[in-house]
Amino acid sequence: MDSDHQAIDYRRALEALRNGVPNRDAVSVLGSNQRKAESSFLERLSSVEVFAKEGKQVPGLLIAGDFGTGKSHLLDYLAHLAVVKNFVCSRVVISKETPLFDPAKVYLAAIDGALVPGLSGEAIREIALRLHPGSRRYAEFVEWANGPASGLSDLFKATILLHERLNNDPELVDQITSFWSGERLAVNRIRQGLKQINCSRMYSLKPVKVKDLALQRFIFASRLILAAGYGGWVLLIDEVELVGRYSLLQRGRSYAELARWMGRVEGEVYPGLTAVAAITADFGLAVLQEKSDRDIVGVRLRGKETDEYITLAGRAETGMRLIEREALTLEPPDESTLIHTYQRLKEIHSKAYSWDPPEIPTAAMSMRRAMRSYVRRWVNEWDLKRLYPGAKLSTEEEQEIRPTYEQDDSLEQPSEPSLEE
Q1: Burial of residue 276 (number of CB atoms within 10 Å: 0-12, 13-18, 19+)
Q2: Which long-range contacts does 113-119 make (Cβ < 8 Å, 24+ apart)?
């Protein structure tokens, strides 16, 4: 990399750091000081393909940290590691548009934000181009998809066959990859394709409920990624604490979904996929205890007295236990980490702007002070000293905005209840 390009990359990284929003450049220059989380993540990556061959899902990793302690930065760093290890990686930020309790919207967000090693463009479309029908991986994929253990609708089985054989109808092939990516595809259009290859009676094509279809897409995409030669699929779920602002019912659904992605739902697995979710460290106290979710959610769901809600109650309780007992708490920055980060940032600032940044007196270290607070202070002070040399300057830190767990009904935007057509 020549010096001009390197300086531009460093400036992008500093811009992200001064705003408290990590990006790929910031992650690449700073790395991560969360060694325990990094080690646990790499152990999971090494097991994904082995577990997949056995029809198992690698258990997920739940990380917890106070606001501003670097959860998002860590997820970006783990995404970097995953792509380097030849994994497709999807970052999903829980929001109004992507509620955790809605697997259809989570899938769309995961595919839209997927990083595919060495490739750019639409993820599923690019992955599908890497399929080799004559390969062992592809043969295993087709055998699995058409077997009873896959649990896939005949919609997927038919589209795999059409994608392989229908070279004379590129429009339908394009529609099929869009369907795999989460878009709609008319059943009649699939039937027309099957007629073209004289296979119209091979499959029983029926509409599938939106939620069921979304979960099948996760299963399908995980296997598709393996068939294309990748190490697996990593799902990174950020800002899970937003769940605390849902209504009680949707909190219950969200806890159940967290259990699903952590691989803790009995009888339901996603071979080829492993997930990492990030949540605030005080969620257990503020929501599970003070809102009494731990005691109320399961009771309320079972009170509906249907098999669906009784099953949901058990899964929700599993998700809450995960938050309380198994979350890996991020390590606060110690003195050696602060010194290393300070020196690295000083070097980056020097190369970004071709100057020699002066030393900045280090504020008293506090276990309650977030790394982001140190970083923003250092970067801002060097910015000011570079722009106004000789001036006597002082900086004041703004009060960090803390997350709230007050209920917000506007966050709950349900999926369409209609069937896939």
Answers
A1: buried
A2: 114/88, 114/89, 114/90, 115/79, 115/82, 115/83, 115/88, 115/89, 115/90, 115/91, 116/88, 116/230, 117/83, 117/84, 117/86, 117/87, 117/88, 117/230
* Tokens standing for residue 210: 């939106």
User: Going by C-beta distance under 8 Å and a sequence separation of 6 or more, which residues neighbour residue 373?
Assistant: 68, 397, 400
Q: Once rounded to an integer, what is the mean pLDDT over residues 23-50? A: 86
What pLDDT, in 10s, does the model give residues 234-275? Answer: 999 999 999 999 999 999 999 999 999 999 998 899 999 999
pLDDT value at position 61? 98
How far, in Å, CA of 245 to CA of 280, rounded?
13
For residue 164, name the pLDDT band (cuts at 50, 70, 90): very high
The residue among 77, 113, 79 whose CA lies nearest residue 94 is 113
Mean pLDDT of 193-219: 92
> Rounded to whole angstroms, what are the CA distances from 250 to 51, 64, 99, 131?
31, 21, 9, 38
What 8-state DSSP symbol labels residue 281? T
* Residue linked to tokens 């910015």: 383
**Counting Cβ atoms within 10 Å, is residue 282 exposed (0-12), middle (13-18) or buried (19+)?**
middle
Dihedral in degrees, nearest 10, Cα atoms 194, 199, 202, 204: 20
Helix H or strand E segment including 189: helix 187-196
Using DSSP's 3-state secondary structure scheme, residue 346 falls into helix
Question: For 306-398, where are the alpha helices, taking DSSP H only?
Answer: 307-321, 335-353, 371-387
Question: Got the DSSP string for 96-107?
Answer: SSS-TT-HHHHH
- What is the model's pTM? 0.86
Helix H or strand E encompassing 391? none
Query: Residue 25 CA to chain centroid, in angstroms?
Result: 19
Nearest residue to 403 via CA among 292, 283, 268: 283
Q: Which residues contact 285 (CB under 8 A, 6 or more apart)?
A: none
Q: Which two tokens stand for residue 396?
A: 């004041």
Nearest CA to 408 out of 35, 31, 94, 131 is that of: 94
Q: How confident is the model at residue 367 (pLDDT cuts 50, 70, 90)?
A: very low
Separation of alpha carbons 55 and 40, rounded Å: 21
Report the b/e string of 232-262 with b at 16+ CB within 10 A: bbbbbbbbbbbbbbbeebbbbbbbbbbbbbb
DSSP-assigned states of every residue in 155-176: HHHHHHHHHHH-TT-HHHHHHH
| pLDDT at site 421 | 38
Q: Between residues 408 and 58, which one has the greater pLDDT?
A: 58
Cα 120 from chain centroid? 18
